[in-house]
Amino acid sequence: MDMTKVWDYIDAHQEEYIALLEKFVNQPSISAQGIGLREMAELVRQTQESLGAKSQLVETCKYPIVSGYLDNGADRTILLYNHYDVQPPEPLEKWRTDPFKATIIDGKFFARGSADNKGSMLSRYCAIDAYQKVYGRLPVNIRFLTEGGEEIGSPGLMDFIRENPDKIVADGVIWEGGSKNINGGPLQVSLGVKGLCYVELRCHGAKNDMHSKYGAIVESPVWRLVWALSTMKNSNEEITIAGFNEAVTPPTPDDMEALKGMCFDEEGTLRNIGMDHFVKNLSGLELKEKFFYRPALNICGIQAGYTGEGSKTVLPNYAMAKLDFRICPGQTPEIVVDLLRKHLDAHGFSDIEIVTFSNTVPYRGRVDTPIAKAVIQNVERVYGMPPTVYTSIAGSSGMGHFCNATGMPAVCFGVYNDDSQTHSPNEYIFVDDYIKGIKLSACVLHDFAEV
Questions:
Q1: Cβ neighbourhood burial of 267 (10 Å; 0-12, 13-18, 19+)
Q2: If DSSP codes are grouped into helix, strand and coil, which group holds residue 337?
Q3: Which helix (H) or strand (E) holds 360?
Q4: Angle at Cα 54 formed by Cα 49 and Cα 60, nearest 5°?
Q5: Distance of CA 82 to the CA centre of its chain
Q6: Cis bond leading into 117, ω under 30°?
């Protein structure tokens, strides 16, 4: 079938599709603050129904999931997973535009949610619209699974999956968004993710803060927390929690072969972050293996005592640190928390409390699945160069939970870029990338029926 006609339709209706994205991003939907979620869910439902789908809001323990089905009587079905919630826009003073009023400047579309995830979501919806307007009916069926709590750890998603197996049956999944190299490099196609285990360590001391003179004879929870943290990772960047690394399933030869073909712009990344080297001066294949296929332990924040202006001689009675573990196949958040508890106890820190927060599981995909092939074979057609394919990215999402639970393969591609400021002020996408994302989605929807 001639996709040129669909592409011509997309080009002729650019303004219509940009206006739809403006409508979506202008509606706040901040899950962390509970702002605008139901209004946004209803807008998503109405848009799915405008494409011919039967769509409904399914209540969860937090925000509703928008579940829809577009039945074309086809042999194969694609599930489109997206989320309609966004991160808080603060700090507002650092935005150059109103975060909830779409603004286009020099080809850049600024708004909270433009990159994560409303732009990528609508690139799928607009592709369906364009294909149907040109040819009447898609060659595949479409399931829509759109949640409102992805940015707060997807509460209710797994319950929905367990309670509604009929609403997720598909032959492949296109998973929310994805990125493109900002320096003219290729589109990134991702087939898997690292898992995430996010914990808070809490250490208590005296019943109240004390004069710092007592620091000579009263235990400091701050020092105890620092000492505990120092036992978990050494200066050689090795995680030293007993049993932690042994749980990791090593990458396969195919995984390593895929890694060799991954484009990772070391110089550009260092330039963007204002650094002149990576840890241990790693580069090349060794750097990519550590980034994509090895677990990591990061201290997200530490809080204790007085941190205001001037001095305050105080012995704090409480200290807290937030940690995130990026975990790999073979590991689970439950395994990590258990090993962490045993590690702290063995090193004399049984008094330090562990509180768990967001958890996701790892998943490493394959390039030979039909859904992966349908995407990979069309990227060069749209972007003029083949993609960089990641069997697993360094970040985390609910993809691991979903794919491990259902056995369905997933692929992630989208319309933002490495500099899109997702989760930060001045989030944006290029308008041209949005239009290209619609064209790629249309090709994937067509080819998945036959690949």
A1: exposed
A2: helix
A3: strand 353-360
A4: 100
A5: 11
A6: yes
What element of type H or E holds 356? strand 353-360
Q: Which of 287, 301, 317, 136 is nearest to 222 (CA)?
A: 317
DSSP assignment string, 147-200: ES-GGGT-TTHHHHHHH-GGGT--SEEEES---B-TTS-PBEEE--BBEEEEEE
Residue 9 is predicted with a pLDDT of 98
DSSP element (H, E) containing 67: strand 65-70
Asked if residue 142 lies in contact with residue 52, where contact means CB atoms within 8 angstroms, the answer is no
Strand-pair category, 65-70 with 318-327 = unpaired
pTM for the complete prediction?
A: 0.86
Q: List, as one string, the DSSP characters of 360-406.
A: E--B---TTSHHHHHHHHHHHHHHSSPPEEESS-SSB-THHHHHHHH
- The residue type of 116 is D
For residue 91, say if its preceding peptide bond is cis, omega within 30 degrees of 0.
yes
Element (H, E) at 78: strand 77-83
List, for residues 274-303, the tens digit of each pLDDT value: 999 999 999 999 999 999 999 999 999 999
Q: Which residue has tokens 């701050």?
A: 222
Can you tell me the mean pLDDT for 397-410?
Answer: 91
- Nearest-5° angle of CA 193, CA 56, CA 408? 30
Question: Starting at the edge strand that comes first in sequence, how are the strands of the sheet with 172-175 ordered?
Answer: 54-58, 65-70, 141-147, 77-83, 172-175, 410-411
Q: CB count, 10 Å around CB of 330?
A: 14
Which tokens in the block code for residue 63? 């925000």
Distances (CA, A) of 154 to 31, 57, 92, 117, 422: 10, 16, 25, 14, 18
Show the beta-strand stretches assigned E in 388-449: 388-390, 410-411, 428-430
Contact by Cβ (8 Å): 223, 302? no
pLDDT at 40: 98
Q: Which amino acid is at 172?
A: G
